[in-house]
């Protein structure tokens, strides 16, 4: 659905060049929610604006639904952008228009007839749970309601792709949860492909099927969230699980074991103790709920070196667990 290859974008100011996006490759499958995670300055906002060519990249290509946007002349690009909706961090609503008027605005630009426009606006406001607030102005709406209007407006042109620019960072935790659940529901009901950027780990955990981690303009890892968390040394795993630095224990092997699917809740540590007569100690652990299930990580201490524990470690891996020797 979205294919980004070799994307590069630099800014020049006062004799300095800042490389905001540095050779990014990314693939977002149809119908999935894909999160790009990174701290401020990582390049994720520039990447998002390059997807609909609000920022034209210096190099590389962006293909959306089989169309290479970077190869289109301006007139065709404007038409193609109608298939890409966007929701903004600070809502970007017109204060002089009601909720209905804000949702109607892109339809007016597209030349949709008045009666059809009114019907579409009513449908969209009902879809986001604001059917009774059609005549309210932005100043009369809460932050969550404003963002729901923004989402309805982004869906006005029946897009196949929805871009989200830190859509929940200005909201309180409870409202954030409701907006994320709405986006997930819309993705499933409408078959929307959603590409979102965020610096909030909770966003990735709650609704993302796949994710990429950006640092200094580069993607350092990308893939299905569940697969990334099971990967040894994963940056996403370190951010989500936050088990800290493993302790320095003499003559001890410390391993991090990642559990997914049916492994969560299984007594594999007790089985290890019985089978190998090993004194295994649990040092830390956590279980996180993702969009498609649960995933957990345990930090276990085994007496002796990694070589001496080769058989127990092999047993864990043979059981389908991801095992990383932490120290």
What fraction of the residues are assigned to beta strands by DSSP? 25-35%
Instruction: Provide the CATH topology of the largest domain.
Output: Rossmann fold
Assigned CATH superfamily of the largest domain: P-loop containing nucleotide triphosphate hydrolases
Whole-number total of structural domains: 2
CATH architecture of the largest domain: 3-Layer(aba) Sandwich
Structural class: alpha/beta
Q: What is the topology, as strand order, of the major beta sheet?
A: 6-7-8-3-9-10
The total of beta strands comes to: 14
CATH class placement of the largest domain: Alpha Beta
- Report the span from N to C terminus: 41 Å
Spans where pLDDT lies below 50 across 5 or more residues: none
Number of helices: 11
Order of helices and strands: EEEHEEHEHHHEHEHEEHHEHEEHE
| Biggest sheet record | 6 strands, mixed
Bulk shape: elongated
Radius of gyration over all CA atoms, rounded:
23 Å
Helix content: 25-40%
| Overall pLDDT score | 92
Task: Compile the SSE list and pairings.
Layout: E1 2-13, E2 16-28, E3 33-37, H1 44-51, E4 59-64, E5 67-68, H2 74-81, E6 84-87, H3 99-109, H4 114-127, H5 143-154, E7 161-165, H6 173-190, E8 193-198, H7 201-207, E9 210-215, E10 218-224, H8 225-230, H9 235-241, E11 252-260, H10 268-276, E12 281-290, E13 293-303, H11 310-318, E14 322-325
Parallel strand pairs: 3-8, 3-9, 6-7, 7-8
Antiparallel strand pairs: 1-2, 1-4, 4-5, 9-10, 11-13, 11-14, 12-13
Helix pairs in contact: 3-4, 3-5, 4-5, 5-6
């Amino acid at each position: 659905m979205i294919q980004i290859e070799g994307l590069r974008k630099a800014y020049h100011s006062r004799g300095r060049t800042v490389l905001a996006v540095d050779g990014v490759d990314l693939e977002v499958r149809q119908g999935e929610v894909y999160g790009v995670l990174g701290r401020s300055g990582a390049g994720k906002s520039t990447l998002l604006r390059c997807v609909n060519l609000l920022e034209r990249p210096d190099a590389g290509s962006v293909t959306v639904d089989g169309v290479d946007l970077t190869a289109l002349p301006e007139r065709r690009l404007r038409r193609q952008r109608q298939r890409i909706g966007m929701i903004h961090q600070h809502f970007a609503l017109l204060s002089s228009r009601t909720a209905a008027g804000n949702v109607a605005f892109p339809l007016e630009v597209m030349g949709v007839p008045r009666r059809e426009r009114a019907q579409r606006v009513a449908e969209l406001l009902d879809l986001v749970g604001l059917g009774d607030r059609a005549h309210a102005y932005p100043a009369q709406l809460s932050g969550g309601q404003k963002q729901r209007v923004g989402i309805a407006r982004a869906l006005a042109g029946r897009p196949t792709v929805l871009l989200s620019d830190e859509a929940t960072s200005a909201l309180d935790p409870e409202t954030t949860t409701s907006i994320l659940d709405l986006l997930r529901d819309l993705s499933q009901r409408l078959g929307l492909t959603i590409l979102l950027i965020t610096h909030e780990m909770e966003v990735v955990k709650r609704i993302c099927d796949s994710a990429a981690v950006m640092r200094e303009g580069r993607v350092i890892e990308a893939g299905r969230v569940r697969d990334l968390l099971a990967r040894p040394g994963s940056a996403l795993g370190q951010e989500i699980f936050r088990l800290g630095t493993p302790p320095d224990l003499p003559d001890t092997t410390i391993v991090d074991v990642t559990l997914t699917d049916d492994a969560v809740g299984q007594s594999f540590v007790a089985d290890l103790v019985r089978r190998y007569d090993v004194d295994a100690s649990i040092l830390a652990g956590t279980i996180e709920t993702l969009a498609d299930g649960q995933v957990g990580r345990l930090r276990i201490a085994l007496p002796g070196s990694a070589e001496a524990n080769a058989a127990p470690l092999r047993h864990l891996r043979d059981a389908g667990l991801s095992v990383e020797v932490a120290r």
